[in-house]
């Protein structure tokens, strides 16, 4: 499900294994089609077209979690009727697409998370501003990505006025956590419960969008162990099968879980040039029941996202990077360039990975 860059990079791993990939999305000439996927172009809500697609495939996974409930229940019912393998389960997608369910699941699993308050009804507009600590962030409960739909509020007045502007009640208010570092773990869980994971990475965001990933993150041993333990705990608690990326805020020894994505994650792209196995290959292996790797040796890689405004093929900077054999370019095949839109990324796998992109802006 979905045909964007994550589906494209999945194709690039899976087709050499002899598999055929089909993608379902409303987009024609999608990034995935450019990498060899058969394209099924229809709205997610089109139950007839979706069912036709499901009849033609042997196993289903997701590159995108913001799929309407009608599509998820169609997939779920079809799978129950026919035995079509669907990983991760629609229930895991439902958790990941709803910040309130997601954070409630973290709490149930004993994973610390930021304090949060739902805004689901008129009454919450009045009660939440007197409960929450400031600064806080008002977020849409569903359909958020890359910081979209977020308003930071420094004072009670700012929150009251942001809440007054809301036209519907499907939001949460989160307390701002003054982290010193952000981290993520990419984890794969197989049908038999086997888990493979990468060491935690350190992530740097710019304007709420991922800018840089340093792998491995080099956190204190105890922090690193806790990050991995929380990732495993989530996977086991919600019986997750497939690959996910889970994001954390860190301050000293304190760790809070922010969110998880039920698919390969932007902060896992380093793995494409880490000389071992990539997160997309792990997604394929979990879906197709191939063996789990015995271990994943670590190689330092730094990833930098290319947003619309940084998309400069042929520029002096890009040509210089391409002359260096350690810079690897991954473009997503998007035809329209927009500011802030993810167009691709660079991976750097050479010496001094921490300084690979310092002058890049
Ligand atoms: P999205 O779903 O858009 O990725 P996130 O909740 O991950 O939304 O927010 C994007 C980024 O905004 C985070 O990686 C972090 O840098 C910042 N951010 C979000 N929520 C908080 C918070 N409660 N405290 C501090 N920073 C936050
Ligand atoms: Mg995020």
From TrEMBL:
Keywords: ATP-binding, Ligase, Nucleotide-binding, Purine biosynthesis. It catalyses: 5-amino-1-(5-phospho-beta-D-ribosyl)imidazole + hydrogencarbonate + ATP = 5-carboxyamino-1-(5-phospho-D-ribosyl)imidazole + ADP + phosphate + 2 H(+). Pfam families: ATP-grasp, PurK_C, RS_preATP-grasp-like. Signal peptide: none annotated. Its EC number is 6.3.4.18. InterPro entries: ATP-grasp, ATP-grasp_carboxylate-amine, ATP_grasp_subdomain_1, PreATP-grasp_dom_sf, PurK, PurK_C, PurT/PurK_preATP-grasp, Rudment_hybrid_motif. PROSITE patterns: ATP_GRASP. Pathway: Purine metabolism; IMP biosynthesis via de novo pathway; 5-amino-1-(5-phospho-D-ribosyl)imidazole-4-carboxylate from 5-amino-1-(5-phospho-D-ribosyl)imidazole (N5-CAIR route): step 1/2. The keyword Ligase applies. Residues 103-288 form the ATP-grasp domain. SUPFAM superfamilies: Glutathione synthetase ATP-binding domain-like, PreATP-grasp domain, Rudiment single hybrid motif. Catalyzes the ATP-dependent conversion of 5-aminoimidazole ribonucleotide (AIR) and HCO(3)- to N5-carboxyaminoimidazole ribonucleotide (N5-CAIR). Belongs to the PurK/PurT family. Homodimer. This is N5-carboxyaminoimidazole ribonucleotide synthase. It comes from Leptospira yasudae. The lineage of its organism: Bacteria, Pseudomonadati, Spirochaetota, Spirochaetia, Leptospirales. The gene is purK.
């Amino acid at each position: 499900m979905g045909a964007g860059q994550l589906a494209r990079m999945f194709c690039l791993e899976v087709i050499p294994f002899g598999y055929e990939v089909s993608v379902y999305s409303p987009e024609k000439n999608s990034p995935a089609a450019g990498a060899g996927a058969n394209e099924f172009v229809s709205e997610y809500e089109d139950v007839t077209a979706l069912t036709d697609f499901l009849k033609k495939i042997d196993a289903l996974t997701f590159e995108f979690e913001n799929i309407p409930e009608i599509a998820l229940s169609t997939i779920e019912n079809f799978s129950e009727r026919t035995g079509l393998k669907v990983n991760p389960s629609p229930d895991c997608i439902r958790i990941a697409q709803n910040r309130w369910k997601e954070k409630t699941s973290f709490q149930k699993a004993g994973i610390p998370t930021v304090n949060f308050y739902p805004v689901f009804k008129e009454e919450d507009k009045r009660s939440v501003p007197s409960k929450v600590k400031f600064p806080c962030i008002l977020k849409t409960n569903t359909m958020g990505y890359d910081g979209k739909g977020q308003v930071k509020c420094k004072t009670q007045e700012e929150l009251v006025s942001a809440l007054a502007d809301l036209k519907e009640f499907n939001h949460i208010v989160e307390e701002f956590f003054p982290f010193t570092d952000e981290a993520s773990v990419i984890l794969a869980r197989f049908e038999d419960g086997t888990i493979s994971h990468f060491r935690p990475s350190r992530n740097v965001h710019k304007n709420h969008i991922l800018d840089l990933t340093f792998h491995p993150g080099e956190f204190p041993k105890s922090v690193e162990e806790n990050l991995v333990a929380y990732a495993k705990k989530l996977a086991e608690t919600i019986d997750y099968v497939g690959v996910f990326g889970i994001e954390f805020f860190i301050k000293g020894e304190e760790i809070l879980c922010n969110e998880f994505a039920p698919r390969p994650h932007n902060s896992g792209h380093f793995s494409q040039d880490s000389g071992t196995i990539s997160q997309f290959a792990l997604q394929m292996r979990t879906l197709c029941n191939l063996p789990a790797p015995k271990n994943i040796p670590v190689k330092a890689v730094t990833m930098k996202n290319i947003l619309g405004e940084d998309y400069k093929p042929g520029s002096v900077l890009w040509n210089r990077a391409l002359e260096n054999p350690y810079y690897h370019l991954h473009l997503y095949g998007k035809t329209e360039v927009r500011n802030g839109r993810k167009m691709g990324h660079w991976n750097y796998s050479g010496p001094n990975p921490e300084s690979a992109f310092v002058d890049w802006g």
